[in-house]
């Protein structure tokens, strides 16, 4: 069975153990996928987020999913694209730390939004390459752990980028 798949649509509809939010360092909500997740989860989500005292770029924190079909939300903060060598390192950290946090919580399915590719300005093809490489490496490093990964694509353009990168 393939461990990685692509879903074209709204991440808030996915029935998985965890969805990964492209948050900002306050963790108190925002626009884009962050706004959609908070709206769908309900006000209990921001209440729990307030107890977490923010999140640094590249790190990840977990909350319950509340009114979402997903059991948990993993909040990670992608880099604001600058064109520096740090960008792919920080973006890779988002994917790796989210997967490790999911495993620590005994979760077995995770859906990622395309972190940093909206408001944060990361060029889509470059970000997709980092996402696919980091997730593939993590899965290869944990062959005995059952984890399925969905790349949630909100537009055809994003889906095309993932299909190309995955060779589908
Ligand atoms: N489901 C799946 N993907 C979505 C959805 C959705 N419902 N809505 C948008 N996307 P962005 P960033 C895609 O801007 O670049 C927020 O204000 C979107 O098409 O949400 O990491 C935060 O609070 C794009 O491909 O996140 C931060 O301040 C991807 O999600 C800042 O934006 C990411 O776009 C984070 O910026």
Write the layout of secondary structure elements.
Layout: E1 4-8, E2 18-23, H1 32-41, H2 43-50, E3 60-64, E4 72-77, H3 86-104, E5 109-112, H4 124-141, E6 148-153, H5 156-166
Parallel strand pairs: 1-6, 2-4, 2-5, 5-6
Antiparallel strand pairs: 3-4
Helix pairs in contact: 3-4, 4-5
Bound molecules: ligand AR6.
Descriptive notes:
The protein is α/β, with parallel strands linked by helices and 168 residues long. The protein has a single domain (4-166), classed as 3-Layer(aba) Sandwich (Leucine Aminopeptidase, subunit E, domain 1). The protein contains five helices and six strands; from the N terminus they run ββααββαβαβα. The protein has helices at residues 32-41, 43-50, 86-104, 124-141, 156-166, and strands spanning 4-8, 18-23, 60-64, 72-77, 109-112, 148-153. A six-stranded mixed β-sheet has the order 1-6-5-2-4-3, sandwiched between helices. α4 links the parallel β5 and β6. The protein is globular and about 40 Å long. It starts with a strand and ends with a helix. 42% of the residues are buried. The model has no long low-confidence stretch (mean pLDDT 97). Ligand AR6 binds next to β2 and α1.
Mean pLDDT: 97
CATH architecture: 3-Layer(aba) Sandwich
Q: Can you count the helices?
A: 5
Main β-sheet description: 6 strands, mixed
- Order of the strands making up the biggest sheet: 1-6-5-2-4-3
What is the number of beta strands? Answer: 6
**CATH third-level topology:** Leucine Aminopeptidase, subunit E, domain 1
- End-to-end separation in angstroms reads 15 Å
Unreliable residue stretches:
none
- Tally of individual domains: 1
Helices and strands, in order, run as EEHHEEHEHEH
CATH superfamily: Leucine Aminopeptidase, subunit E, domain 1
State the helicity in percent bands: 25-40%
Shape: globular
User: What are the distinct ligands in this entry?
Assistant: ligand AR6
- The CATH class label is Alpha Beta
CA radius of gyration is 14 Å
**In percent, how much strand structure appears in the residues?**
15-25%
Q: Which structural category do the helix and sheet elements fall into?
A: alpha/beta
């Amino acid at each position: 069975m393939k461990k990685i798949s692509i879903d074209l649509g709204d991440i808030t509809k996915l029935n998985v153990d965890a969805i990964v939010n492209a948050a900002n360092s306050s963790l108190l909500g925002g626009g884009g996928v962050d706004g959609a997740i908070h709206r769908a989860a309900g006000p209990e989500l921001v209440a729990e987020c307030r107890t977490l005292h923010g999140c640094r770029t590249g790190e990840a924190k977990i909350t319950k999913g509340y009114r979402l079909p997903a059991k948990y939300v993993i909040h990670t903060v992608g880099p604001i694209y600058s064109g520096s060598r740090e960008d792919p390192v920080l973006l890779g950290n988002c994917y790796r730390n989210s997967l490790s946090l999911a495993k620590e919580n005994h979760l077995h399915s995770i859906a990622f939004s395309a972190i940093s590719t909206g408001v944060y300005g990361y060029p889509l093809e470059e970000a997709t390459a980092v996402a696919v490489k980091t997730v593939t490496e993590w899965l290869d490093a944990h062959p005995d752990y059952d984890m399925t990964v969905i790349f949630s694509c909100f537009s055809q353009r994003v889906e095309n980028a993932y299909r190309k990168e995955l060779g589908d």
